[in-house]
Amino acid sequence: MRILVIGNGGREHALAWKLRQSSEAERIFCAPGNAGTAEIAESVAIPAGDLDALLRFARENRVDLTVVGPDDPLAAGIVDLFAAEGLRALGPTKSAARLEASKIFAKELMRAQKIPTAEARTFPDSGEALDYCERVKFPVVIKADGLALGKGVIIAPDAATAKSTIDEMMNRGRFGEAGRRIVIEQFLHGTECSLHALVDGSSYRLLESARDHKRALDGDQGPNTGGMGAFSPANNWNKKLQSQFEAEIMQPLLHGLLQEGITFRGLLYPGLIITNQGARVLEFNCRFGDPETQALLPRMKSDLLPLLQATIDGNLSNCAIEWDRRVAVTIVLASGGYPGKYETGKAISGLDDAAKLEDVQVFHAGTKRANSEVRTAGGRVLAVTALGSTLEAARTRSYEAVSCIHFENCHYRHDIALGDR
């Protein structure tokens, strides 16, 4: 099979790496890819947002399966576009991708299906939102309605922060059109958990659990990022929570989508918070998580390719997924200043030394090759994953690999998978 992976991050490197292991994978293309994917796949100089060029490439190169990594192409309708041309692409349609592309759509669907989530109000007008802040109980969570690269969620501890956030999103265009409408919701206390499920429209297969570290700095301080590290399995997940999740979240969600005339086929990734009352949905994502994918796929013993094909074909009920029982810990190495302003073009050393360590895999994210050197090319640069018999063993091995890698102003958290996380 000829496979096209769309995107240039660590998630896409992990997907290409896993798909490369399949005996059915003849050629793998990555558009646009990075320095890491270039070692295992053929790079294609097409941005992930250029849907027409991607369609043309897939058609001309007889691509059998396209795997869409980022959320933006899904929200723009790339799966619909490919399907109209008879091409197979993994991911939800534009209509189904609204679960992630619109926080307001997701909230309304959850409310209608009585899916447990935070109480929330939506605002199309900044004046109403600012007035609401005069009487709401703090802290609150303020979310841009649309896609904002994982940075459109702000926890406001007080009215002053809430008002400045609303002004930046709705009046100053901090997130462009994504922030023209917002959701203000109650702050839920608990610990977060990431679940992934392959969904074929009517049935699904849950992947292993994971936990992500969103804040930029140690001790869960600093601004939210796209993710500074992850580990799998989650240490706050159990069979009782899974039963509740399937009965109160997954099944009502799929039922509600079908009532809306929407058939969801692809990867559904609900971000959860585990409260004293059980699991609550923070948000829905319609693609593999980053960096959770870099922790999950090294633990997957099954061939990923037939699972993705079954998802598209509606045959997941016939599939089982085998997992490595070991723990995976993933640490993200970022450019100094991320998620704010940062410099790129820094030479990276020590990649080969890190890769030589047993049970270690280095996934590239913001990298490029220039003059035979690998250099930084983004905010999140690398994701270093290690497997171990225990969480502590995996964590120790992962940080050992991290210590081998160097680039100017390299920044990473030192407390990934530590403590009660």
3D structure, described in words:
- This protein has helices spanning 10-20, 51-60, 71-75, 78-84, 98-101, 103-112, 126-132, 159-171, 239-259, 292-296, 304-313, 351-355, 391-402; strands at residues 2-7, 27-32, 42-43, 65-68, 89-90, 120-123, 140-144, 153-156, 182-186, 191-194, 197-200, 204-206, 211-212, 215-217, 221-224, 229-232, 265-275, 278-285, 327-335, 360-364, 367-370, 373-376, 380-388, 410-411.
- It is an alpha+beta fold and 421 residues long.
- It folds into four domains: 2-93, Rossmann fold, CATH 3.40.50; 119-186, Dna Ligase, domain 1 (2-Layer Sandwich), CATH 3.30.1490; 191-318, D-amino Acid Aminotransferase, Chain A, domain 1 (2-Layer Sandwich); 327-411, Glycinamide Ribonucleotide Synthetase, Chain A, domain 4, CATH 3.90.600.
- The strands form six sheets. Strands 13, 16, 19, 20, 23 and 24 form a six-stranded antiparallel beta sheet that branches. Strands 3-2-1-4-5 form a five-stranded parallel beta sheet. Strands 10, 11, 12, 17 and 18 form a five-stranded antiparallel beta sheet that branches.
- A hairpin with a 2-residue loop joins strand 21 and strand 22 (373-376).
- The radius of gyration is 21 Å and the shape is globular.
- It starts with a strand and ends in a 10-residue tail after the last strand.
